[in-house]
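Worked Example 4.2. Consider the chain below.
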Amino acid sequence: MNELLLRLVEDRIPAGHAPIYLPRAPRALYLVDGDLAVDFPDGGQHVPQHTAWLGDCEVTLMAGSQDARIWRWELMDAEQPLPVELRSAPGTSSVCKLEHPVELDPRTEWLMRCDRVDFPPGGVALTHVHQGPGIRCVLTGEITIETLGEAHVHPQGQAWFELGHAPVLAPTTPDAPTTFIRCFLLPRACRGRSSIRYVLAEDAAKPKTQQYHVFGERFIQLN
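Applying the procedure from the previous section yields the following structure tokens:
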């Protein structure tokens, strides 16, 4: 199986822009600002601000009445990557915020999940692992990720990658609430279930400060 690449791109689409066509790929679209409609082979969906759409088919993006800012996650073959930019879409802009190779066991069936994680000021995600890799991006506030012997501070708008199996401790700023948006890859057996596991037995019973909102899940095919 070819190496896979997970990428997060920030797109800006002016209000009323002509339809934009994206090729087939497992993807999640989160509307940071504005709104749009997503047309796909068997239907369509309006996606307002602070919601998300997930799918793996060819799609048409229909601009709304306001300028839109989108966080677009896509999973692809690393040897044949998708373009970062929105092709044949003058007036739009696209910036790759982060891309990272991912290793998924081909003997396991996988899904893509997009969700939001909210912390009060000074909240912390105690040392934990997840069942798969993914890219997160800070929507508001600031978070520190301590993993693999290093600590990195991520302010608003910055993205980072987590392996899933590497333990992470994640304190947030005491100055304001913190929210990040996450797209990650999980075994299908995790559908509708939390993927987090706490490394220290004593942490499992402690009160948790973070809250979750799942926008959607989508089964994906690796071949």
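The domain at 4-102 is CATH 2.60.120.10 (Jelly Rolls). Residues 4 and 77 are 5 Å apart (CA to CA). Compare this with Example 4.1 before moving on.
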